[in-house]
Amino acid sequence: MKYAFPDNFWWGSASSAPQTEGETLAFGKSATIWDRWFAEQPTRFHHGVGPQHTSTFYQHWKQDIALLKELNHNTFRTSISWARLIPQGRGEVNQEAVKFYNQVFDELHAQGITPFINLFHFDMPMVMQERGGWESRDVVTAYAEYAQTCFELFGDRVKHWFTFNEPVVPVEGGYLYDFHYPNVVDFRRAATVAYHTMLAHSLAVKAYHERHDGGEIGIILNLTPSYPRSQNPADVKAANIADLLFNRSFLDPALRGEYPKELVALLREYDQLPACQPEDKALLASGVVDLLGINYYQPRRIKCRDSQVNPDSPFMPEWFFEAYDMPGRKMNPYRGWEIYEQGIYDILTNLRENYNNPRCYISENGMGVENERRFDENGQIQDEYRIDFVSDHLKWLHKGISEGSNCLGYHMWTFIDNWSWCNAYKNRYGFVSLDLATQKRTIKKSGEWFRETAAKNGFDD
Ligand code: BG6
Questions:
Q1: What are the catalytic residues (predicted)?
Q2: Nearest Cα to 361, choosing from 346, 337, 344, 343?
Q3: Which of 86, 206, 405, 419 has the smallest C-beta neighbourhood within 10 Å, fewest atoms?
Q4: Rounded-to-integer distance, Cα 43 and Cα 33, Å
Q5: What distance in angstroms lies between residue 335's CA and the mean position of ligand 1's atoms?
Q6: Number of separate domains in the chain
């Protein structure tokens, strides 16, 4: 076979509790920031569709796990909802939630699918947000308690844990660019949120390692390779700063246990460093992960600023660079994001050369399609474009592995079309299409392709 993958390669897909479970305010679950924001501002959500409109995994878990099996998944990622498990954020555990997650993990194992479980996918419980969210050190401690509760309850069956999915996104969305609650635009507060998230991460990693229960713990980062417009030093510097702010601010603490010196110097120069405690350094050092999840969708194309920044304007990342619309770049015609398959290889090469080749896997990669409606006469979506997208990325991944990268698997985003924050169902990504009105699930052509690819552990051209 032309593209054969290593034995025991992880073939699967990723999803999350808030995007699939449904029953948002039922069975003991309390509100998250998404429930609150939707209640306050439904017009911010595509077609006014809020977090309660999901594929209701809470009710369909058995059917969905059977579908995962049918698609030859040997692994599957989802998350635990903090607001469901511990509705007050701290303290009493909701036994309905324990029963639900026990059933899910047991059924996954019964079907030969290893659960990969993430603890936080953008879904801050509202009670915790009201106590300051990630700006508060108390919330950091509360998160660590929640993580330990999960390890105690489910650690016998879950051996692959993740502390956060894409921690930069709530920072960008909630505190810089206004696409997540609480809709703040303030760099210093954003930096505090980012810093506290990594402290929370480190506390959870430390606690997990102290258990010595034979499992592993990681973090899932959306890495966006930052390519300069040219090799001109000003463009290169601009791309490096974007890399520092959006990638290395999480990647370095997760893999090296400390922040890049250049990042600290930059934030100090502009008086944007978050407040630190003397014990933080040692804590961050204990946050080094066993496994890195890499979400890769698209790169960043960067150029230096053409115009001077107004020094009276509030400090923002864009003081240092501008996005560059590279002529001729390949775009996803259905979702407006660039498609650059080689990015996945570049990420692996960087990790191999500069970060000691960590254990890693592709935890998300996928193609969103607006208004996906190419049905055949049997009602199946003929998504050849998605097969091309996945196989083209897998080819570059294969090359990275053949050159020595320690990449152990590939998870598609996502298993079934799901609710996606403010975009709701605007962009569909699944191997399985969802009819929201009837809850009917239909495997797309790409799902069939994946079923075969996973069974053969690779593919030919
Ligand atoms: C990923 C997130 O970055 O992008 C998912 O982890 C999200 O939660 C996915 O659903 C797709 O985003 P969008 O905006 O295209 O719906």
A1: 364 (nucleophile)
A2: 344
A3: 206
A4: 16
A5: 12
A6: 1
The per-residue pLDDT for range 113-140, each reduced to its tens digit, is 999 999 999 999 999 999 999 999 999 9
Interface pTM (ipTM) of the complex? Answer: 0.98
Tokens 């890195």, residue located: 292
149 lines ligand 1 (CB under 6 A): no
- Res. 224 pLDDT band, cuts 50 70 90: very high
The finding on whether 420 has its CB within 6 A of some atom of ligand 1 is yes
Distance from the alpha carbon of residue 247 to the mean position of ligand 1, in angstroms: 17
Phi, psi (degrees; rounded to nearest 5) at 86: -130, 85
Residue 140 is encoded by which pair of tokens? 């950091």
Bond prior to 225 in cis (omega within 30° of 0): no
- Asked if the model's pLDDT at residue 253 lies above 90, the reply is yes
- Could you tell me the two tokens for 42? 């439904």
**Owner of token pair 């036994």:** 95
Q: Is 78 in the pocket of ligand 1 (CB under 6 A)?
A: no
pLDDT band at 440 (very low <50, low <70, confident <90, very high): very high
Beta strand 300-303 with 322-323: parallel, antiparallel or unpaired? antiparallel
φ, ψ of residue 433 in degrees (nearest 5): -90, 150
Q: Active site residue: 21, 364, 377, 448, which one?
A: 364
Average pLDDT, the chain: 98
Strand 360-364 with 432-435, pairing: unpaired
Classify the phi-psi angles of 458: left when phi > 0, otherwise alpha if psi is within -120 to 50, otherwise beta.
Answer: left
Mention every residue, 6+ apart, whose C-beta is less than 8 A from residue 138. Answer: 131, 132
Q: How far apart are the first and last CA of the chain?
A: 9
The confidence band for 373, taking pLDDT boundaries of 50, 70 and 90, is: confident
Ligand 1 probe mutation, 120, 219, 420, most atoms within 8 A of CB = 420
Any ligand 1 atom below 6 A from CB of 94:
no
**Has this prediction a pTM greater than 0.80?**
yes
Q: 205, 446 in Cβ contact below 8 A?
A: no
| CA-nearest residue, atom 9 of ligand 1 | 420
Rounded Cα distance between 72 and 416, Å, is 15
Angle at the Cα of 419 from the Cα atoms of 415 and 420, rounded to 5 degrees: 100
Catalytic status, residue 364: yes
CATH number of 154's domain: 3.20.20.80
Residues of the domain holding 59: 3-459
Length of the chain: 461
**Ligand 1 center to residue 30 CA distance, Å?**
23
